[in-house]
Amino acid sequence: MSGEDGSQMTDVSLETDPNVSGAEAGASEAREVTQELIESLTGWREELTDTLEQMTTDAYQRLILQLLEKDGVGEIELSSANDTIEGIGIFGGGGFLTFRVSFRCIRGGGRISSAEVDDFRRGVMLGRADKGLLITTGGFTQEAELKAASDRAPEIRLIDGGELIGKLKELELGVRTEQVTVERVVIDRDWFGGV
């Protein structure tokens, strides 16, 4: 069923069980609707992570390119192998300050080690980039985070799977938000007591 604004509406009706009171049936329906709402509000992160993991390498590369461009990185040169995409670009194009950024995007639910951060930092230095951006759909070990946070140049910024999907949501890349209105009915017993 569609609402006046074209939005989809769901007509929910209860079948009456003679052994269940109206209040119990209403409470049961409310619990089910609440559970469905909670799942739809929280399950999107897992669904998006699964979607990223299932994309073809070419599609994932195009997504990363769009993500970087929408976030202000231009003049991007890409290369890829297996589930790793690497490249270099210019961040801040059109502004007074620009810098070269080297990036590596790794797909997979694993955790990136400190050795991989060191390897990436060497690559950033060889590419003569000012900063490095290491992105994964998985996570980083604590040692990797400490290694990236060290004062050694060039600066390495780590983006884990949670931050990646948050950025996709923020930039509305394949993710849109919908407003959900919940109505709660409260009985004002004081009002009824004063009638």
How is the secondary structure organized here?
Elements: H1 22-42, H2 44-54, H3 57-70, E1 73-81, E2 84-91, E3 99-106, E4 111-112, H4 114-126, E5 131-136, E6 139-140, H5 142-149, E7 155-159, H6 161-170, H7 189-193
Parallel strand pairs: 3-5, 4-6, 5-7
Antiparallel strand pairs: 1-2, 2-3
Helix pairs in contact: 4-5
How would you summarize what this structure contains?
With 195 residues, the chain is of the alpha/beta class.
Structural overview:
- This protein is of the alpha/beta class.
- The chain has two domains: 21-54; 56-170, 3-Layer(aba) Sandwich (Trna Endonuclease, Chain: A, domain 1), CATH 3.40.1350.
- It contains seven helices and seven strands, in the order H-H-H-E-E-E-E-H-E-E-H-E-H-H.
- It has helices spanning 22-42, 44-54, 57-70, 114-126, 142-149, 161-170, 189-193; strands at 73-81, 84-91, 99-106, 111-112, 131-136, 139-140, 155-159.
- The strands form two sheets. A five-stranded mixed beta sheet has the order 1-2-3-5-7, with helices on both faces. Strands 4-6 form a two-stranded parallel sheet.
- Helix 4 packs parallel to helix 5 (142-149).
- The two termini are 39 Å apart.
